[in-house]
Amino acid sequence: MTGPVRVLIVDDDDLMRAGLRAVLSSDASIDVVGEAADGRVAVASARALRPDVVLMDVRMPHQDGIAATRELAGVAPAARVLMLTTFEDDDYVFGALSAGASGFLLKRTRPEQLIEAIHTVADGDSLLSPSVTRTVIDRIATASPPDPVVAGRLRALTARERDVLELVARGLSNAEIAGELFVEESTVKTHMKRILAKLGLRDRVQAVVAAYETGLVRPGAPGRE
């Protein structure tokens, strides 16, 4: 994207918000446009500030991060939500992704990884901590009934687009998919944009879930750990 990434920090811990602001301010390509201490304020702030990325805590008073993420889809649909929490419980991850989050990281993540994650999410990709990716995706897929509309649209994908979607669902990054298919990374990104457009999906997480739901990839199939 052009220009700095506009970030809204949401966390009920004053010290944590200050620390996150300090880390993010060290990157000239990130602009912290605001802070919020609970989900209700986060939704109002996102509506007013129009951030590119909302760095969202899970457990907060008044309204938690998962409920706030669900509301953001209506008031700030362009904002990408990156959940940041101390909890590695699958229930939190499952709830966050089902609510529309584009990424999930643990608070013990190193500063440089957090900055990279924000840029990744801002660019339209999705991101999960490796320790939770496979179990959570499997759970979402098996808990969600197949969407017949998406299943029908799957037939519109080309053979190469289906290959890309399958590799995305198995946990490979764009760079790894490019290596697997012997193409440029920019080509993989183009395929992903077309896949999302054809399937009527918002982001990479939804594409992964759709791949499992429609049977393109089976839960428990070999993939990246």
From TrEMBL:
<keyword id="KW-0238">DNA-binding</keyword>
<dbReference type="Pfam" id="PF00196">
    <property type="entry name" value="GerE"/>
</dbReference>
<keyword id="KW-0805">Transcription regulation</keyword>
<protein>
    <submittedName>
        <fullName>DNA-binding response regulator</fullName>
    </submittedName>
</protein>
<feature type="domain" description="Response regulatory">
    <location>
        <begin position="6"/>
        <end position="122"/>
    </location>
</feature>
<feature type="modified residue" description="4-aspartylphosphate">
    <location>
        <position position="57"/>
    </location>
</feature>
<keyword id="KW-0804">Transcription</keyword>
<dbReference type="InterPro" id="IPR001789">
    <property type="entry name" value="Sig_transdc_resp-reg_receiver"/>
</dbReference>
<dbReference type="GO" id="GO:0006355">
    <property type="term" value="P:regulation of DNA-templated transcription"/>
</dbReference>
<dbReference type="InterPro" id="IPR011006">
    <property type="entry name" value="CheY-like_superfamily"/>
</dbReference>
<dbReference type="GO" id="GO:0003677">
    <property type="term" value="F:DNA binding"/>
</dbReference>
<dbReference type="InterPro" id="IPR016032">
    <property type="entry name" value="Sig_transdc_resp-reg_C-effctor"/>
</dbReference>
<feature type="domain" description="HTH luxR-type">
    <location>
        <begin position="150"/>
        <end position="215"/>
    </location>
</feature>
<dbReference type="GO" id="GO:0000160">
    <property type="term" value="P:phosphorelay signal transduction system"/>
</dbReference>
<keyword id="KW-0597">Phosphoprotein</keyword>
<dbReference type="InterPro" id="IPR039420">
    <property type="entry name" value="WalR-like"/>
</dbReference>
<dbReference type="Pfam" id="PF00072">
    <property type="entry name" value="Response_reg"/>
</dbReference>
<dbReference type="InterPro" id="IPR000792">
    <property type="entry name" value="Tscrpt_reg_LuxR_C"/>
</dbReference>
<dbReference type="InterPro" id="IPR058245">
    <property type="entry name" value="NreC/VraR/RcsB-like_REC"/>
</dbReference>
